[in-house]
Amino acid sequence: MFGFHYRLERHALRFVLAVVLVAGIGGFVEIAPLFTISETVETVPDMRVYTPLEVAGRNIYIREGCYACHSQMIRTLRDDVERYGPYSLAVESKYDHPMLWGSKRTGPDLARIGAKYSDEWQVAHLVNPRDVVPESKMPAYAWLARTPLKMGDLGLHMAALRRVGVPYTDEMIANAPGDAYGQASPDSPYAAGVTKRYGDATNVRAFAGQPGHVTEMDALVAYLQILGHLTDAAHVQQAQAAQ
Protein backbone atom coordinates (compact mmCIF):
# COMPACT_ATOMS: atom_id res chain seq x y z
CA MET A 1 0.00 0.00 0.00
CA PHE A 2 2.74 2.43 1.00
CA GLY A 3 4.81 1.39 -2.02
CA PHE A 4 1.92 2.27 -4.33
CA HIS A 5 1.60 5.68 -2.65
CA TYR A 6 5.30 6.40 -3.01
CA ARG A 7 5.22 5.49 -6.70
CA LEU A 8 2.14 7.67 -7.19
CA GLU A 9 3.87 10.66 -5.62
CA ARG A 10 6.74 10.38 -8.12
CA HIS A 11 4.37 11.04 -11.05
CA ALA A 12 2.78 14.47 -10.71
CA LEU A 13 0.05 13.95 -13.31
CA ARG A 14 -1.07 10.63 -11.84
CA PHE A 15 -1.07 12.14 -8.37
CA VAL A 16 -3.20 15.11 -9.51
CA LEU A 17 -5.68 12.76 -11.21
CA ALA A 18 -5.86 10.63 -8.04
CA VAL A 19 -6.56 13.75 -5.93
CA VAL A 20 -9.28 14.88 -8.36
CA LEU A 21 -10.85 11.40 -8.28
CA VAL A 22 -10.92 11.20 -4.47
CA ALA A 23 -12.18 14.80 -4.13
CA GLY A 24 -14.86 14.07 -6.73
CA ILE A 25 -16.09 11.04 -4.81
CA GLY A 26 -16.19 13.05 -1.58
CA GLY A 27 -17.98 15.92 -3.28
CA PHE A 28 -20.57 13.60 -4.78
CA VAL A 29 -21.30 12.03 -1.40
CA GLU A 30 -21.89 15.50 0.07
CA ILE A 31 -23.87 16.94 -2.84
CA ALA A 32 -26.05 13.95 -3.77
CA PRO A 33 -28.41 14.31 -0.76
CA LEU A 34 -29.33 17.81 -1.93
CA PHE A 35 -31.16 16.30 -4.90
CA THR A 36 -33.54 14.54 -2.49
CA ILE A 37 -34.05 17.53 -0.17
CA SER A 38 -37.74 17.71 -1.10
CA GLU A 39 -38.17 14.21 0.32
CA THR A 40 -36.11 14.97 3.42
CA VAL A 41 -37.93 18.11 4.59
CA GLU A 42 -41.44 17.32 5.75
CA THR A 43 -44.41 19.29 4.40
CA VAL A 44 -46.58 20.68 7.19
CA PRO A 45 -49.51 23.12 6.93
CA ASP A 46 -48.79 25.14 10.08
CA MET A 47 -45.13 26.07 9.51
CA ARG A 48 -44.67 29.82 9.95
CA VAL A 49 -41.83 32.28 9.44
CA TYR A 50 -40.01 34.33 12.05
CA THR A 51 -41.41 37.78 12.73
CA PRO A 52 -39.09 40.81 12.31
CA LEU A 53 -38.54 40.98 16.09
CA GLU A 54 -37.67 37.28 16.17
CA VAL A 55 -35.32 37.73 13.21
CA ALA A 56 -33.58 40.50 15.16
CA GLY A 57 -33.40 38.25 18.23
CA ARG A 58 -31.91 35.44 16.19
CA ASN A 59 -29.29 37.81 14.80
CA ILE A 60 -28.38 38.82 18.36
CA TYR A 61 -28.24 35.14 19.38
CA ILE A 62 -25.76 34.51 16.57
CA ARG A 63 -23.82 37.72 17.23
CA GLU A 64 -23.27 36.82 20.88
CA GLY A 65 -22.13 33.29 20.02
CA CYS A 66 -24.92 31.54 21.95
CA TYR A 67 -24.77 28.67 19.42
CA ALA A 68 -21.26 27.84 20.67
CA CYS A 69 -22.63 26.51 23.97
CA HIS A 70 -26.22 25.59 23.07
CA SER A 71 -27.35 23.18 20.38
CA GLN A 72 -30.74 23.39 18.67
CA MET A 73 -31.23 19.82 17.60
CA ILE A 74 -32.77 17.09 19.73
CA ARG A 75 -31.41 13.76 18.61
CA THR A 76 -33.42 10.55 18.39
CA LEU A 77 -31.59 9.16 21.43
CA ARG A 78 -33.85 8.19 24.31
CA ASP A 79 -32.01 10.44 26.79
CA ASP A 80 -32.43 13.44 24.49
CA VAL A 81 -36.14 12.85 23.93
CA GLU A 82 -36.89 12.29 27.62
CA ARG A 83 -35.04 15.44 28.64
CA TYR A 84 -35.90 17.88 25.86
CA GLY A 85 -39.03 16.58 24.12
CA PRO A 86 -39.76 15.19 20.62
CA TYR A 87 -36.70 14.82 18.43
CA SER A 88 -36.11 17.57 15.90
CA LEU A 89 -37.57 17.36 12.39
CA ALA A 90 -35.93 18.81 9.29
CA VAL A 91 -38.92 21.08 8.63
CA GLU A 92 -38.40 22.88 11.94
CA SER A 93 -35.18 24.37 10.55
CA LYS A 94 -36.62 25.01 7.09
CA TYR A 95 -36.32 28.78 7.38
CA ASP A 96 -33.10 28.90 9.44
CA HIS A 97 -30.23 30.57 7.62
CA PRO A 98 -27.71 29.60 8.87
CA MET A 99 -28.69 26.42 10.67
CA LEU A 100 -27.93 26.46 14.40
CA TRP A 101 -28.09 22.72 15.10
CA GLY A 102 -24.71 22.68 16.84
CA SER A 103 -23.11 19.80 18.68
CA LYS A 104 -21.69 21.40 21.84
CA ARG A 105 -23.78 21.44 24.98
CA THR A 106 -22.01 23.45 27.62
CA GLY A 107 -25.57 24.57 28.28
CA PRO A 108 -28.77 22.64 27.51
CA ASP A 109 -30.28 22.20 24.07
CA LEU A 110 -32.68 25.03 23.23
CA ALA A 111 -34.67 23.50 20.37
CA ARG A 112 -37.85 23.47 22.53
CA ILE A 113 -37.09 26.19 25.06
CA GLY A 114 -39.97 28.34 23.80
CA ALA A 115 -42.72 28.87 26.41
CA LYS A 116 -40.96 26.51 28.84
CA TYR A 117 -40.20 29.47 31.12
CA SER A 118 -41.83 32.86 31.54
CA ASP A 119 -40.50 36.06 29.96
CA GLU A 120 -39.51 37.21 33.45
CA TRP A 121 -37.42 34.06 33.94
CA GLN A 122 -35.70 34.52 30.58
CA VAL A 123 -34.89 38.16 31.34
CA ALA A 124 -33.57 37.31 34.81
CA HIS A 125 -31.48 34.49 33.34
CA LEU A 126 -29.94 36.80 30.75
CA VAL A 127 -29.32 39.62 33.23
CA ASN A 128 -27.54 37.29 35.67
CA PRO A 129 -27.75 33.54 34.96
CA ARG A 130 -26.75 32.56 38.49
CA ASP A 131 -29.84 34.20 39.95
CA VAL A 132 -31.94 31.38 38.53
CA VAL A 133 -29.37 28.65 37.82
CA PRO A 134 -26.69 28.85 40.54
CA GLU A 135 -24.32 26.44 38.79
CA SER A 136 -24.50 28.24 35.43
CA LYS A 137 -21.26 29.16 33.65
CA MET A 138 -23.05 31.46 31.20
CA PRO A 139 -21.91 35.10 31.08
CA ALA A 140 -24.37 37.87 31.95
CA TYR A 141 -26.05 39.91 29.23
CA ALA A 142 -27.62 42.64 31.36
CA TRP A 143 -26.60 45.33 28.88
CA LEU A 144 -29.07 43.95 26.33
CA ALA A 145 -31.89 45.48 28.40
CA ARG A 146 -30.21 48.90 28.12
CA THR A 147 -29.52 48.73 24.38
CA PRO A 148 -32.27 50.03 22.07
CA LEU A 149 -33.00 47.62 19.25
CA LYS A 150 -31.92 48.79 15.80
CA MET A 151 -35.00 48.20 13.64
CA GLY A 152 -34.46 50.34 10.56
CA ASP A 153 -32.62 47.66 8.57
CA LEU A 154 -34.83 44.68 9.44
CA GLY A 155 -36.55 44.87 6.06
CA LEU A 156 -33.17 44.36 4.39
CA HIS A 157 -32.49 41.30 6.54
CA MET A 158 -35.85 39.83 5.59
CA ALA A 159 -35.34 40.63 1.90
CA ALA A 160 -32.06 38.71 2.06
CA LEU A 161 -33.81 35.77 3.71
CA ARG A 162 -36.45 35.80 1.00
CA ARG A 163 -33.73 35.36 -1.61
CA VAL A 164 -32.73 32.07 0.01
CA GLY A 165 -36.26 30.73 0.22
CA VAL A 166 -38.07 32.23 3.22
CA PRO A 167 -41.54 33.25 1.94
CA TYR A 168 -41.69 36.82 3.21
CA THR A 169 -44.13 38.99 1.28
CA ASP A 170 -43.50 42.54 0.09
CA GLU A 171 -45.93 43.71 2.77
CA MET A 172 -43.99 41.92 5.52
CA ILE A 173 -40.70 43.41 4.36
CA ALA A 174 -42.10 46.93 4.00
CA ASN A 175 -43.63 46.85 7.51
CA ALA A 176 -40.69 45.16 9.26
CA PRO A 177 -39.65 48.05 11.57
CA GLY A 178 -43.23 48.77 12.63
CA ASP A 179 -43.98 45.09 13.20
CA ALA A 180 -40.86 44.68 15.33
CA TYR A 181 -41.94 47.62 17.47
CA GLY A 182 -45.56 46.46 17.60
CA GLN A 183 -44.77 42.91 18.73
CA ALA A 184 -43.05 44.23 21.86
CA SER A 185 -45.58 47.05 22.36
CA PRO A 186 -49.02 45.41 22.63
CA ASP A 187 -50.84 48.68 23.34
CA SER A 188 -49.44 50.47 20.30
CA PRO A 189 -51.30 50.83 16.97
CA TYR A 190 -48.60 48.69 15.34
CA ALA A 191 -49.53 45.55 17.29
CA ALA A 192 -52.56 44.74 15.12
CA GLY A 193 -50.37 44.61 12.02
CA VAL A 194 -48.22 41.90 13.57
CA THR A 195 -51.11 39.50 14.12
CA LYS A 196 -52.55 40.39 10.71
CA ARG A 197 -49.35 39.41 8.90
CA TYR A 198 -48.05 36.60 11.13
CA GLY A 199 -51.17 35.09 12.69
CA ASP A 200 -53.22 35.39 15.86
CA ALA A 201 -50.96 32.92 17.68
CA THR A 202 -47.98 35.29 17.42
CA ASN A 203 -46.53 36.33 20.79
CA VAL A 204 -47.34 40.04 21.16
CA ARG A 205 -46.29 41.44 24.51
CA ALA A 206 -43.62 43.48 26.29
CA PHE A 207 -41.07 40.69 26.58
CA ALA A 208 -38.64 42.67 28.74
CA GLY A 209 -41.41 44.41 30.65
CA GLN A 210 -40.96 47.89 29.15
CA PRO A 211 -43.80 48.60 26.66
CA GLY A 212 -42.87 51.19 24.06
CA HIS A 213 -39.14 50.85 24.78
CA VAL A 214 -37.94 48.04 22.52
CA THR A 215 -34.49 46.75 23.40
CA GLU A 216 -32.21 43.95 22.28
CA MET A 217 -33.46 42.05 25.33
CA ASP A 218 -37.00 42.11 23.91
CA ALA A 219 -35.76 40.70 20.60
CA LEU A 220 -33.66 37.91 22.13
CA VAL A 221 -36.43 36.82 24.50
CA ALA A 222 -38.98 36.90 21.65
CA TYR A 223 -36.70 34.59 19.65
CA LEU A 224 -36.13 32.20 22.56
CA GLN A 225 -39.86 32.03 23.26
CA ILE A 226 -40.69 30.88 19.72
CA LEU A 227 -38.07 28.11 19.54
CA GLY A 228 -39.88 24.82 19.02
CA HIS A 229 -43.18 26.52 18.18
CA LEU A 230 -42.85 27.45 14.51
CA THR A 231 -44.79 24.24 13.86
CA ASP A 232 -46.39 21.52 15.99
CA ALA A 233 -45.30 18.78 13.58
CA ALA A 234 -42.89 17.09 16.00
CA HIS A 235 -45.47 16.90 18.79
CA VAL A 236 -48.11 15.59 16.39
CA GLN A 237 -45.72 12.92 15.13
CA GLN A 238 -44.85 11.89 18.69
CA ALA A 239 -48.53 11.61 19.61
CA GLN A 240 -49.27 9.50 16.53
CA ALA A 241 -46.33 7.20 17.31
CA ALA A 242 -47.61 6.69 20.87
CA GLN A 243 -51.01 5.50 19.69
Automatic annotation (TrEMBL):
Residues 52-228 form the Cytochrome c domain. Keywords: Heme, Iron, Membrane, Metal-binding, Transmembrane, Transmembrane helix. The chain crosses the membrane at residues 12-35. SUPFAM superfamilies: Cytochrome c (SSF46626). InterPro entries: Cyt_c-like_dom (IPR009056), Cyt_c-like_dom_sf (IPR036909), Cyt_c_oxidase_monohaem-su/FixO (IPR003468). Pfam families: FixO (PF02433). NCBIfam families: ccoO, PRK14487.1. This is Cytochrome-c oxidase, cbb3-type subunit II. It comes from Alsobacter ponti.
